[in-house]
TrEMBL record:
Family: Belongs to the methyltransferase superfamily.
Official protein name in the record: Methyltransferase type 11 domain-containing protein
Keyword Disulfide bond: no
Presence of the UniProt keyword Methyltransferase in the record: yes
Length: 252
């Protein structure tokens, strides 16, 4: 019941050998789901440019490069594929803001507790959810993410997984995360002519007490992506302290 098969196929996306072979065969860069330009309002709102950022499952994406161009100063990129990491090390050898290490997100013990102000995940948890022992892998990864976050740090998850398949993993009390949800359409989506919807994709989406979307919520794009902003609360902090008001389209 815990393995998310909604967008899985026969590939084992949690296997380093699969990714090594893929990066050998495919040249160039590729960003899963969304480019930085679409995610920028969320990133800039919740992650200061001075943050020490951990990008998990970086692959050969341009997102970290785009963040540096936007003012981010310190991004550690990790991936299970040594092929991808060596490729990116060579590509960004002369950009000191970008660092790369081969690492499995299920065991990031190389880093001490509370090493990062924020962790960004664009499709990595999804990959584990398609692999073998998915619930164990997810718990290992999220436990490590929680351990590495400083108090009040942000874990930003960009995923195809709606709350029915993601909240049961994210809402475990041990993480003590306050979660804000945004839903954004896939790149290129346009509302149908005559659509009466006025909802801005930059507005947070309400979540019920059970961690689900309201029964009357209409998903305009069935292939939408979900952005979970998870703030690690400290023991004395009120859960309401994370802002959940609408974002500006251009957050500076």
């Amino acid at each position: 019941m815990f393995r998310d098969v909604s967008s899985c196929n026969t590939y084992n996306y949690g296997d380093a050998l699969y990714w090594d072979a893929r990066y050998v065969q495919e040249a160039g860069s590729f960003d899963w789901y969304q480019r930085y330009s679409s995610l920028r309002p969320f990133v800039r709102r919740y992650i200061p440019t001075s943050s020490r950022v951990l990008m998990v499952g970086c692959g050969n994406a341009l997102m970290s490069e785009d963040m540096v161009k936007d003012g981010y100063e310190d991004i550690m990129n990790i991936d299970i594929s040594s092929v991808a990491i060596e490729m990116m090390k060579r590509k960004y050898e002369y950009i000191p803001q970008l660092k790369y290490m081969q690492m499995d997100v299920r065991d990031m013990s190389f880093f001490p507790d509370e090493s990062f102000d924020s962790v960004i995940d664009k499709g990595t948890l999804d990959s584990l959810m398609c692999g073998n022992d998915a619930p164990i892998s997810a718990a290992q990864m999220l436990g490590e993410v929680s351990r590495l976050l400083k108090p009040r740090g942000i874990y930003m998850l960009i995923t195809y997984g709606d709350p029915t398949v993601r909240m049961l993993h994210l809402s475990r009390p041990v993480y003590n995360w306050k979660i804000i949800l945004f839903i954004i359409p896939r790149p290129g989506f346009e509302r149908p002519a005559g659509s009466s919807s006025s909802r801005s994709f930059l507005e947070p989406v309400p979540i019920t007490e059970k961690g689900l979307l309201p029964a009357d919520f209409v998903l305009e794009d069935p292939d939408s992506h979900f952005v979970y902003v998870c703030k690690k609360m400290d023991e004395t902090e009120e859960l309401q302290s994370i802002p959940d008001h609408p974002l500006m389209a251009d957050v500076l």
